[in-house]
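Good morning N.,

You mentioned wanting to compare the apo and holo forms, so I went ahead and generated the holo version with NAP. This is what I fed in:
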Amino acid sequence: MSRFANKIAVVTGAGRGIGQEIARKLASEGAKVAVVSRSASSCGKAAEEINKEFPGSATAYDVDVADHQAVQDLAARITNEIGAPNILINNAGVTRDTLLMRMKEEDWDTVIDTNLKGAFNTVKGFMRTLMKAEDPRIINIASVIGLIGNAGQANYSASKAGLIGFTKAVARELAGRSVTCNAVAPGFITTDMTDELSDAVKEAVLAKIPLGTFGQTTDIAELVAYLASPAARYITGQVIAVDGGMTM
Ligand code: NAP
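and this is what came out, ligand included:
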């Protein structure tokens, strides 16, 4: 049985990494997926790769989630071109890591505007459609750093902690319309975002992971697919860490 037959999903930040794997996973089980990222080349390439495996499942949309009006227009476009979405995955995220002493206003604004305001923008854009959809789901990709904080990531920690608060408020507001809203908090997952870190930082992180290994994008996509499926209808307002035991 395809869990997502006749379902339409929107995945932001799906041009590579965790978002691309989530889009691929949903497409592999029958969903039509809107693959959203900032650059046309990255979402175009990701959609092409997904379509090679699951023909006709993916459509690329190059939109900056931080741009409120562009996201409202995107919601209308996706609904016209693919259909009314059942599933919204807020995964787009950036880092601008540096100690507070050196953090510039733009480092703060870019991270908050993408990671936190981006989710507000998409929920505003898609909420009316989701409220009428079958098995409506919102899943926000937060981070364990939003739970425990991290030196050098004040902007990122605040954005992800904010996203967790937003998740719970949305879960409460939309529960009456059967829309569930949950957050997944990845630990250290091997992607371009974490490849940037030095070997010394990676070793220090690894020492704190009881399962003794970094996570893969598939570890996140598996949980997201479960939360997006009809089987997860009674789970809402939760934050689930996928971190090899790092924050237990
Ligand atoms: P990644 O490899 O850097 O990919 C990020 C994706 O987000 C790219 O497709 C990028 O698009 C897109 N994006 C960035 N800013 C955007 C914007 N303003 N509008 C639309 N799309 C935008 O990141 P990742 O490691 O897969 O992380 C995905 C999510 O998981 C993020 O929210 C991240 O904070 C979270 N997370 C990751 C880890 C980890 O260990 N990797 C841990 C905890 C949480 P372009 O290609 O167009 O730039």
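The chain has nine helices and seven strands.

Happy to go through it together on a call whenever suits you.

Best,
F.
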